[in-house]
Amino acid sequence: MKKILIVDDSLFMRMILRNVIQELGYETVAEASNGLEALTLYNELKPDLVTLDITMPEMDGITALEEIKNMDPDAKVIMVSAMGQQALLIRAVSMGASDFIVKPFSKDRVREALKKAFAS
After folding, report:
1. Distance CA 43, CA 100 (A)
2. How many angstroms from the chain centroid is the CA of residue 110?
3. pTM for this structure?
4. Are 39 and 64 in contact, with CB atoms under 8 Å apart?
5. In the predicted model, is pLDDT for residue 120 greater than 90?
6. CB 3.0 to 4.6 Å from 52: which of 22, 48, 61, 76, for a disulfide?
């Protein structure tokens, strides 16, 4: 079973994403509320994939993506953002993110993003 680390400063969004991920047959190994926590957990747990919110305190998702990719160039990361952050999403994909999900997201969109990330 693929292990996923969910990173979002909103507890509610982490809960929604965790439920969708579990329904799709994946395991959430941990959750983080900012980029700094994400780096620590990534190092400890070596998840198969990370979902990263873009806007977070302490360290934003773009910086966390860069740090994770420096640690592990093969890391699979899906960016999660609110509407209106298209420029940041394009930047994240150019930095190596596998895909992105825009909030509010559907189960089908999450499935599609996970399938794309694990196929690459």
Report:
1. 22
2. 11
3. 0.95
4. yes
5. no
6. 61
How far apart are the C-alpha atoms of 25 and 33, rounded to whole Å? Answer: 23
Continuous segment of H or E residues that includes residue 6: strand 3-7
Cα–Cα distance list, 99 to 9, 44, 57, 58, 67 (Å): 20, 24, 22, 23, 17
Q: Which two tokens stand for residue 6?
A: 């969910």
As a whole number of angstroms, the distance between CA 10 and CA 118 comes to 25
- The whole-number pLDDT of residue 117 equals 96
Angle among Cα 51, 57, 63 to the nearest 5 degrees reads: 55
DSSP calls for 16-58: HHHHHHHHTT-EEEEEESSHHHHHHHHHHH--SEEEEESS-SS
Task: Compute the average pLDDT of residues 43-67.
Answer: 96
Radius of gyration for the alpha carbons in the chain, expressed in angstroms and rounded: 12
Asked whether residue 75 carries a pLDDT value surpassing 90, the answer given is yes
Residue 86: per-residue pLDDT: 81
Kind and range of the H or E element at 118? helix 107-119
